[in-house]
Known about the structure:
The chain has helices spanning 4-16, 18-52, 85-94, 130-133, 146-150, 160-166, 197-204, 211-217, 237-251, 267-310, 312-320, 325-362, 377-404, 407-412; strands at 60-65, 83-84, 98-114, 117-126, 137-141, 155-159, 177-180, 183-192, 206-210, 223-224, 226-231, 262-266. By secondary structure, the chain is of the alpha+beta class. The chain folds into two domains: 4-53 and 272-412, no CATH class; 60-266, no CATH class.
Amino acid sequence: xxxxxxxxxxxxxxxxxxxxxxxxAFGIFWGIFMLMIMLGAGSGLQNGIKRNFGDFAPNSCxxxxxxxxxxxxxxxxxxxxxxxxxxxxxxxxxxxxxxxxSPRLFQYSSSVSRNNKTEAFTIVGDFPEYNIIDPVNILKGxxxxxTDLDDHRKDIVIGQRVADILFGPDEDPIGKYLKIKxxxxxxxxxxxxxxxxxxxxxxxxxxxxxxxxxQKAYNYGNIVSYFMMTSKSKVSVKYIEDKSISILKAxxxxxxxxxxxxxxxxxxxxxxxxxxxxxxxxxxIWVVGLGTLFAGVIGVSxxxxxxxxxxxxxxxxxxxxxxxxxxxxxxxxxxxxLLVTTAGYLGLFIGIGLVELINxxxxxxxxxxxxxxxISLEVALSSLFILVVSGLIAAIIPARKAVSMKPIDAIRSExx
Length: 416
């Protein structure tokens, strides 16, 4: 393997057939190049979709009240109702498998003013647990805490866009007051969304306050718009979801068979479906990419068969002078590996380089569902291993054919 003469002979053979060597190498180059591009595109799609969820807890579900579709215990169908804070306490008591639970109350397009600036923003009443289930980036100050809830404090945490609109660029919002529908609230924190696109814009233009404060200040009673909850470790979200729905139906006099009265969606199931989709996408990419690469390997193998036919006399002379069958076979295998590895490494390098260039270009442009395409080190090393093995496989049949003929017959043979 380390003999200089052997490598010179291999390089000479490749140079003597430049066009053939180039076309053969291009098939390998294109196969590994397309594999890298497709893997990078697949990772960019996966990262974009995951980023759109921010850090939303995967072991969570959301529930909200809808309209009943069945009569039950004297109530007619089509009845509307609301979840209340007492439902949260009921679930905490009867479903110990729940880890965190956070109700929310929405008030859209509320007039918010400061000095001579007035704008409409969404107001949300929250519990501290919300920032565990669907966290945001706290840029300044703090989020809502338990003391805010217990004391019904008029404290608010504002989104980044709210701060940009109502405050000057060098002005610190912390400790300042905003007037929301005639009531003053003190700013205790500024946050930014971890999501992207429209959802991020919506969250960044939101003002959050303690839920009991919002209920009391704007006469909402004890109602909530919806609530989110997470399951404890090793507990299925589906289990707490089904159990909670049964308890809520009984508490609000809803027919057990009424499947439409309580709206809900399971983030754990959605995450599982997305993960299955990503696995399927990666599988298709690998099948297509390796199929293209395999076609190139077949081309290399066919070319090596032609090489064997052309150099049959040469191999016969080598063996007549004392070269072992393994010497001839290893020479052909090294030639194939050199051709495949060089072309493949070049395709790998250019493919990864192009993916990185796309990543740098996208740093200034947020495409939402496509984010941070990348090729992992594990994938790159696996690809290099596949290249070396492919080169060996491509040369095995031609190499065996080269030593299958007796030296004297090989010398007498004539290529046509």
